[in-house]
Predict the 3D structure of the following.
Amino acid sequence: MSNQPKPLTEVEHIKTQSRLLRGTLAESLVDPVTGSIATPDTSLIKFHGSYQQDDRDIREERRQQKLEPAYSFMLRTRLPGGVCTPAQWLAMDALATEFANNTLRITTRQAFQLHGVIKDDLKPTIARINAALMDTLAACGDVNRNVLCNPNPVDSRVHETVYQWAVRISEHLLPKTRAYFEVWLDEEKVAGGEEEPIYGATYLPRKFKTAVAVPPLNDVDVFAQDLGFIAILEGGELVGFNVSVGGGMGATHGDAATYPRLADVVGFIPPEHTLAVAAEVVKIHRDFGDRTSRKHARLKYVLEERGVPWFTAELERRLGFALQPARPFAFEHNGDRFGWTEGHDGKWHLTLHLDSGRVADRPGAQHLTGLREIARFHQGDFRLTANQNLVIANVGSEAKDAIDALVARYALDGFRSASPLRKNALACVALPTCGLAMAEAERYLPEFVGKVEARLVAHGLLDANLLLRITGCPNGCARPYLAEVGLVGKAPGRYNLHLGGDARGQRMNRLYRENIDEEGILGALEPLFAAYARERTPGEGFGDYVTRAGHVPAAPAKVTPPQAA
Ligand code: SRM
Ligand code: SF4
């Protein structure tokens, strides 16, 4: 065995040479010969919120015609807590129809994605997003991504407070390079002397994700995040946060060195330490994450391999003070609260269900048009949820009827009749845009849900809350390892079936059957549904049942978060 240190990954070299994320992006954008950008720039453009993609449905056909792939770009906004104004919704809607594929996609990180933007249209699209007071900066890349925040808490007073923390964390952790503003907004070039005080010139070894959760709702899946802030309320006031670190979902089929991991709760902090803790956790990732393997570079591997006590000591050393013991909290579920809820101030919030977060005009369901109509007169705000749904928030009681009428007219009222299975299901984008997809997810979800519903009906279980999540590959973009039933794409039409998550986002599921097709999946679920219908205890979820009854082994024990008495 050689004692030579392992070489850094190619992306590390690209970052080093990029002059703080500039690379040759400006030149690539004006190169008329191709619809693509230079290979190193495909890594750098992610930090600016975009991915180069090609339409995989026609990839082979174009190859046979000796044409270059049908290149286009996905654009992702940074939208802390998923909050946007009606004017911002209308701006995104206009861009979707003018420059993208006539759809808006609400992501599992409360952001918008546009798909199908061609190279020539990238700059005007990003400029218009910025003109609408949003941006795409750090929406992807080896930096802190969009910060999640509970969109519709049970106690509405706390939303504004925790949301402001999500915004502050997001801004505090933004890259400081002016590259974004030069490349996309034609701002004056910086002569030098720029610094990245938090990230350094090579940024992080890998992506980094942060969420703020407000118990009893874990609708941001806080334990799937690199860094979590769990709001602790006393007398309705925010007294601080429990801090969780080291979560992540991504894995690679057949590579045991990669795995999903739940975050550990390491302590409690008062609010004034939030930004310092966020920055120091990021810097620990910066300094200790593995820059020799992209698959092994997330913070979760630092936690797993060096241990929680090491991590806490390192964090406290950098902060110069000790974390307080974690405070009790309890999560009830990780889904959205559909329908109308009333806030403390008499304003109303309506949570709508959208299949996989895709906002499109389809026959009989003109969702894009309907939400445009609503945005034209809505006086409150919109909140994109981390479960790919949408809250029409802060509606005055006088406007409720008008919203209800539009929601019904444009068939946005699916949440009223859909089964709990359909309402709570998530699917990642997968084909045709995702370059990593091995199987369908978003396009398969509606049909697959229908088939599962038929079996649930047969067992009198249609009303059961059953959390289903499908991804086209093991990267875990719809957090499938936290589902009660998770399908993880293996090959076209074939999935690994995972069972036994707890619908609170606190227990991971386990692999139950490998590489099976639809018939195999439904066949595997059938006897379990029958047994669940017979043997469940009152209120017991499917994931809890299959674990208790021993159909799947319980996930390995972890440091359990302290629970409220
Ligand atoms: Fe993701 C990569 C879509 C949330 C883990 N993800 C991708 C890419 C960019 C594919 C690529 O690298 O070429 C996908 C683009 C598809 C497309 O055509 O739009 C993609 N991820 C998504 C979205 C749109 C899924 C969705 O259906 O909503 C989500 C965008 C969130 C956002 O607005 O920022 C999305 N991705 C997630 C999540 C969930 C979360 O963050 O809570 C995860 C799991 C949590 C985690 O990060 O551990 C996730 N995405 C990944 C990974 C695996 C990372 C790893 O640690 O191994 C990849 C692959 C990679 O980074 O190499 C990936
Ligand atoms: Fe693509 Fe895989 Fe993420 Fe789905 S889970 S969007 S297939 S990377």
About this structure: Residues 51, 53, 74, 76, 107-109, 111, 113, 145-146, 207, 209, 221, 224, 248-250, 298, 357, 388, 428-429, 433-436, 475-479 surround siroheme (ligand 1) (CB under 6 Å). The CA atoms of residues 458 and 475 lie 33 Å apart.
